[in-house]
Structure formats: structure tokens, C-alpha cells
Amino acid sequence: MLVSVTGTLAFYGWGLALGFAFSAICLFSLVALVRLRKESLGITVDRSRARAFKGEQIPASISVGLSKSWTLAQLDLMTVPEGLEARITEDGPRRMLTVKSNFAGVYKGVKVRVGVLDPLGIFERTEVHEIGMEFEFLPNYLLARPEPLRVSAAMLGDFPAGRRGHGQEFYSAEVYTASGNSRDIMWKRQAKMPNDFLMVRVGEANIPEMMTVCFIEKQDAPMRHNANWMDLASEAIAHVGLPVVASGVTMRLIHVFGDRTTVTLAKDPESLAQALMWVWREDIEKEGTELEPEDADILIASQAETATPAIMGLFERKPSVLLGWDRRRVVLGTGVVFFTGREEVGWLVAKVLSR
User: How far apart (Å, rounded) are the C-alpha atoms in residues 94 and 86?
Assistant: First the structure.
């Protein structure tokens, strides 16, 4: 009987000791968890901004700022903006975020859920963090090679710009090549030439040095970040801007958003891509301007903007690109493109350049 009581006491003694040890371990883990709550988990990515054409993928490496004693239990997507496709995969010790969009525009606001375990693996802490990274997707039309614009011959020479071209004002003389126009051969000068080279007259081009394009946007903030709207507007600006800069003309882009009017320049395809992303980015200082939509050569807007009588009056007088417009609802007297994403606008640009 004495042996039985002694064994029972020993059993309970060991149980109390184990319970005390387990309690001490839990207390240690809990204290560590409380201390960790005072600090952010420190979600970082390997870059703040990345750019690709729509349909392409943008990879980014995600790091979680943890001490060696803590273990990353989970890292998964919480929120993905409309228009984006995203996934998180493991690449050895790293986590890789891959983002893709079939819509042009600027996107941010990807959020992830992070879960970490304490040093003993007993308690878990979960937080939601926004990835501090912007994803820029360019319209695929920038990949196109626009054909040289054919400026109307009837209007050449009216507004000489002081550059090479085929206008009526004399610019220079050069050696005739197979691609030249035989009607420009200077036969009188040829008679005085000591060799057989044919000289042709080069006219002064009437193409202007700058074309002004105005993108009018009256939607509220939620609408302007709609994936379809950003994509359609970006494609329209690209369809206008690419043939402009390819013709050696600087495009001055006016952006009217609400009561704010800003301006930027594009001189080549690279700066045109910058201008397209400039339209949608809100984290940069934009240069204001006294220019108005009335000063533009071409207007770009949608049905929401033209509901304003003053703006509608501009569209009745100026070459315009109407985004997704139902052409049965409006009759305009000037050149207009009813743009739904694939319409050709080169003829409209050529018409403006030939004035």
C-alpha cells in the first residue's frame, strides 16, 4: 500500500513538473509574441516600380523582416486590384510575386497576408500588408511600326516649318536617288555640273514642330482606375502619339482631370511610354499649364466628358477620338474616330499635320 501511494505521488510530481515546464514555455512564447507585436514584420520587395507590355509578366521578390528565431508560416495574396492576375510561388528561401495584366495602365494596392510562428512554433501572428510597388503596363500598340504618314499634297507649303520635306519653299539641293521624285530634278543646274550626278530640289516641310493632344477625363477616382477605362484611354493616346513622334513631331499632351490641368511632352517612343504612365500616376508632381482643351489639335475623351455642352462644342469643331462612343447618338462635322480599341487613327493625325 505504501509503495502504491509513493508511486502515485511520484506520478503526480512528474505531471506537475511537466505542466510547469510547459507553462513556462508557453509564457516565453507569449512574451516573445507580445514583443514582436510592437514591431512591423517589414514586408519589402526588390523594387518600387516595374514596367512591361500588357500580357507580359512582372516578377518581384518579396522579403519578410523576421529575426532568425521566428518562422514564416504563410504568405498568400489577400487583395489584387481589378485587371491584375497575381500569384505567389516559392523560389528556394524566397517568395516570388508574379503579376500579369491584359489591360494597359498603372496598378498598385496588392495586399498579402503574412503569418509567422514564435520561436517554439506554438503561437502564430497574422498581419495584412500592402506591397509597396507599382505595376505599369504599356499598350501593345507601342510595339507597332507605324507607316510614314502621307500628308496631303494640296496643302503642302502653307505653313513652312524650316525642315526637310516636300513643301513648296526651297530648302536645299541634294543628289537624286531612286526613291526621289524625278519631277524635282534641277535640269538647269545639271547642265552646269561637271559630273553625271542628278541634283534634286528639296522643299521645306510644312509639318509643325509640335502637335498638342488633350486627354479630357472627368470621371471620379474609382472610375479612372477601372481596368477597361485605363486600357482604352492608353491605347487611344498611343494610337495618336506614336505616328506623331514617328514623324519627327513633338507631342504635347495636356491632361484634364477634374479641375486640374497638367502637361507633358513626348518626342520619341520612349518618352511617349513615359507620358502614358504619367497620365495615371498620382504619386508624382505634375507641371500645371495655362493651356486649355481649346488649344489642342486633337481631343480624346469619352461619352461622360462630352455630356458637358462646352466640351461637346469643342468636339463638334476639332478632330477628335471618342472612346467607346455609340456613333448612332452623335453627328459631328469634323474628323472623328469612334475608338473601341483597334480603329486606325493615322489618317486623323495626317489631316492635322497637313494643315
Answer: 16
Look-up: residue for cell 462646352?
A: 310
Q: What CATH number did the domain enclosing 329 receive? A: 3.40.50
Q: Read off the C-alpha cell for 125.
A: 501572428
Entry field: residues in the chain: 355
- Please state the rounded mean pLDDT for residues 225-245: 92
Report the C-alpha gap between 349 and 346 in whole angstroms. 5
In this structure, of 13-17, 258-262, 285-289, 316-320, the range with the lowest mean pLDDT score is 13-17
Regarding whether 246 and 171 lie in a shared domain, the answer is: no
More confident residue, 117 or 120: 117
Are both 63 and 164 inside the same structural domain?
no
Query: Between 269-280 and 227-246, two packed helices, what is the crossing angle to 10 degrees?
Result: 150
Judge whether 234 lies within some domain.
yes
Q: Closest by alpha carbon to 87, among 58, 107, 63, 56? A: 58
- Rounded Cα distance, 322 and 324, in Å: 6
Domain, as residue range, for 47: 43-138
The amino acid at residue 144 is A
Q: For the purposes of burial, counting CB atoms within 10 Å of the CB of 111, is it exposed (0-12), middle (13-18) or buried (19 or more)?
A: middle
- The answer to whether the predicted template modeling score (pTM) of the entire model surpasses 0.85 is no
Separation of CA 354 from chain center:
30
If asked whether residues 194 and 213 sit together in one domain, one would say: no
**What cell was used for 5?**
501511494
Give CA separation, 205 vs 6, 91, 137, 170, 274, in Å. 112, 57, 36, 9, 28
Tell me, rounded to whole angstroms, the distance of Cα 176 from its chain centroid. Answer: 44
Largest Cα–Cα separation, the chain = 139
* 14 belongs to a structural domain: no
Q: Determine, yes or no, domain membership for 335.
A: yes
In tens, the pLDDT along 256-302 reads: 988 889 999 999 999 999 999 999 998 888 889 999 999 999 999 98
Say if residue 114 is exposed, middle or buried (CB neighbours under 10 Å; 0-12, 13-18, 19+): buried
Q: Which residue has the cell 516641310?
A: 205
Q: Helix, strand, or coil here: 280? A: helix
Same domain, 236 and 127: no
